[in-house]
Amino acid sequence: MMVAEGVAEETKLHNNSLWFLVHGEIDHRHKHHASRIKSKTLAPLSPETVIAASPRVYHVASYGGADPTGVNDSTDAIRRAIGEALQARRGEFLYTGIQNLGGVRVDLDGGVYAVSQPLQLPPGTGNFVIHGGTLKASDDFPTGESYLIDLSAGNGSLEYNFEFVTFRDLFLNSNLRGGGIRVVNSLRISVDNCYITGFTSEGISVAGGHETYIRNSFLGQHITAGHDPGESHFGGTAISLSGNDNAVTDVVIFSAAIGILISGQANILTGVHCYNKATGFGGTGVYLKTPGLTQTRIVNSYFDYTGIVAEDPVQLQISNCFFLGDAFILFKSVNGVINGVNVADNMFSGSSQGDIVRLDESKGSFKHIDQVTIDRNNARGMNIKSTIARAKSNNVTSSTSWKVDLNHILLFPNRTTYVEYTFVPSGDFFPKHALKSVSNNLVVVESDVEVVATVFVMAQQGNSH
Fold first, then answer.
1. Mean pLDDT confidence for 84-94
2. Is the pTM value of this prediction over 0.85?
3. Which end of the chain is more exposed for a tag (fewer CB within 10 A), N or C?
4. What CATH class has 57-380?
């Protein structure tokens, strides 16, 4: 019996059970189902019992003008496939005004397709998938702010334009003419297992909306495996997040001037490996350009000869990361604010060229400092910087004054807000002693009589009270 593709699941079960009845091979897994349908399955099936459903997968290669070899322009064929897929289902909605297309898929079937224009989806598209092949910009693809796949079309009547659109298993080559994927004012968009290269603007641009998830993907302006002779000329931004509540997980960025640019709030980066462009060549792994309210978490990530820059960070977490090749964290003062920052449990490796955390106060010093904790980091070939310092005096002879300089450890100059010390005399005599001063991160303890002693100091900075 011929059964049309897309046959209903109930019909498939019906036919399978009939086969077992005819051949007398029903086992214990089918007894219950067979007994339930016995009165129906003993009679021959008529053609009317086969229910054919509309296809839910649209194969680009089956449309006229599609060239899966990538030689000829396939823009019109792909647009027709997308257009038909968008008509697949009407009447059900996700968020207000966004059509639920039921998970309909546009399948590239492993082909390589050249496109001369951006592939744009209309606003109101939801539960839609494009997957399984390669898209490359042709030599006449428009340059500048053009993207191979574009979810930027707006509709003044919609609060959000797209929801639950998935791009999966795609290789996108922008051919140094534009960007890869643009997502604007959208909800719950997925970019999964994609390789994006050849971008001059952004590999993935997310603006407005929230909950765009980028997973298990690879991005680079140029295809390289590191130590590229042209690294100093790498440009573009691999991922730009100017929306809220987005996640980048298990992503490798191997060439770009900026790996990830964040200007939205409440985003999280996990398992990211940036070796996009070395700091020595002017590159940045992650740039937090969000003065005033960062609310970003960067965890379990790897910064390979390129680091993190954060402008006036407020509520920023950087933890359990590895910084290689003198990569470091830079806090840049714009309005002099740093608040609610935790940098802890990270590893740094370098060649004795600087501190693990640094300040850029070229536009003014940090004046509003509160709830900043930098501690429990370890380093080889780099200098530890912290907001918590532990040290002891070096006096070996009797004295009435002990000085402990903490500038080589403490991050902020002349800002020690809390000090504890322990006075340990070498003999049985125990003099009176007191904390004399804390200025320029220099702790001074004095006693009323001369004595041989060691002073242990623990100091903190980073809190306003």
1. 86
2. yes
3. C
4. mainly beta
